[in-house]
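User: AbrB family transcriptional regulator. Structure?
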Amino acid sequence: MSHDAAQPDADFEPLTATYERLRHSTDSAELSEFARRPLPDRSDQAAFSRATALLEAVAGNNHTPVEDRIMLAQTMPFPNVLVKLSVDDSPEVRRAVAANEDDKNWLVGRLTKDAVPEVRDAALRNKRTSWKMRLEGAQNPDLDAATLDWLSELGVTREEGAPVILATMVRRAVALNPNTSEETLARLREDPAPEVVKAASRR
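Assistant: Predicted structure:
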């Protein structure tokens, strides 16, 4: 066995070994450097897959500085990395995931149920969020007036090509929500859909 075979080059550390090392590392500087390292070109499939797999380990490690975790949450399109960040202890990190428009809709949907209002709000405003989740958000009595106002414009001045029935259901739910502001209600009383006008007028 040659000396080289006994001492493999550090660059060829097996993926699982590097993953575990990064996942348990307490070296914030190393983790930060890794988080900010440019990804290999996608044409180099092996290197690209390896780098994105290792980013998952970095994203899931609380020793990675919070600003790096936020940066990954804002910029990464990879579900494996975003899933890790979506359960981060920091609400700022979860909020950045909730606002990331590369999210899968099931992942944003999960964040519309987050315990922290800012995270829920960001998820409800993400265009990836399903209509079912938007409707549930509009029905949530804990939702704040600003996000309800945002939802009240769906299909009218926002996302004008939205499915009419679904957008109308969301606006009607906003009209019935006890947290909806008087200003929003006044606009909903002029809504193009009679069922929304009726709901807003009942308040």
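The chain has a mean pLDDT of 93. The longest helix spans residues 45-59.
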